[in-house]
Amino acid sequence: MKVDMHIHTNVSREGPITIDRLRKICLKKNIFPFITDHNTIKGALAYREKYKDCVVGEEIKAVYNGRFGDITGLFVNEEIKRDLDIFEAIDKIKAQGALVYFPHPYDRFRKRSAFFEKNGEFDLKNKIDIVEIYNSRIFGMKDMRKAISYSDKINAVKGAGSDAHWPIEIGRSYAEVNEFDRDNPKEFLKNLKDGKLFMIKKGNLVLLTTTRIYAKINSRFP
Q1: CA dist., res. 139 & res. 127, Å (int)
Q2: How far apart are CA 82 and CA 137, in angstroms?
Q3: Which helix (H) or strand (E) is 80 found in, with range?
Q4: pLDDT for the residue 120
Q5: Which residues are within 8 A (CB) of 197 and not within 5 positions of it... i.e. 6 or more apart?
Q6: Torsion angle, alpha carbons of 91, 37, 19, 168, to 10
Q7: In Å, how far from its chain's centre is CA 34?
Q8: Is the pLDDT of residue 219 over 50?
Q9: What is the count of structural domains for the chain?
Q10: Using CA atoms, how far apart are residues 84 and 13, in angstroms rounded to an integer?
Q11: Which of 85, 203, 169, 186 is nearest to 130 (CA)?
Q12: CA 197 to chain centre
């Protein structure tokens, strides 16, 4: 099965993907969605209640050494508030039995990508389950190679997500894994480790610009 581990709905206020439209596209592309809206699980819960087939996630704005960045919980049951210290956010993810997913850790062109440590490293060994090495919104392969190297260094499983905010982006990065119980993060993690990752990159500049314009119109850019 193909899983896109990083999808946003219109609840994130950065694009027009409603849960109904997401469902249609996922069926058409044969994609199983991990819904990871910014600082909320409302969109994911609404999708799961209506259509069942998704993993509930949350991309959380957190603080690391005084700098803002994102950390994601996958298979979460309860929403985690934003602006926590990263270690507190990770503890709250783990307390739910969920997985810690590190999205776009070295994307230098993203305002709030990672935490940009001066030495290029993050002291998160044994804290991260999955490092996102493929993200279709990242411009530079150099940034993704850094993510690959970091995942090897901390012995984390490698993941892939489109970071879709617009319908056309869904499924541009995905993992191909064996079937798993939707309520069993450990089984998914095991299957992901044995899976394959894929990525398609094109049209990023237009999509990123459109996302920011859309977010400003909606008066919220988290």
Answers
A1: 27
A2: 23
A3: none
A4: 55
A5: 133, 134, 158, 159, 160, 173, 174, 175, 176
A6: -130
A7: 8
A8: no
A9: 1
A10: 21
A11: 186
A12: 14
Residue 85 placed within a domain? yes
Query: Could you tell me the pLDDT band of residue 66, with boundaries at 50, 70 and 90?
Result: confident
116-170, pLDDT tens digit by residue?
Answer: 454 556 778 899 999 999 998 887 778 888 899 989 999 999 999 999 999 999 9
Residue 200 resides in a domain = yes
Higher-confidence residue: 172 or 215?
172
Model confidence band, residue 217 (pLDDT cutoffs 50, 70, 90): very low
**3-class DSSP state of 211:** helix
Q: How far is CA 36 from CA 114, 189, 210, in A?
A: 16, 17, 20
DSSP assignments along 106-149, one per residue = T-TTSTTSS---TTS--S-TTT-SEEEEEETT---HHHHHHHHH
For tokens 């298979």, the residue is: 75
In a domain, 81, yes or no: yes
Instruction: Could you list the beta-strand ranges (E) of the chain.
Output: 2-7, 31-38, 55-64, 67-74, 84-85, 99-102, 130-135, 157-161, 173-176, 196-199
For residues 137 and 22, the model is more confident at 22
Give the domain range for residue 191.
2-217
Task: In whole angstroms, give the CA distance from residue 65 to residue 197.
Answer: 31
The SS3 assignment for 24 reads: helix
Does the global pTM surpass 0.85?
Answer: yes
Q: What is the CATH number of the domain that holds 76?
A: 3.20.20.140
Question: Cα dist. 88→64, 84, 95, 148 in Å?
Answer: 10, 6, 10, 25
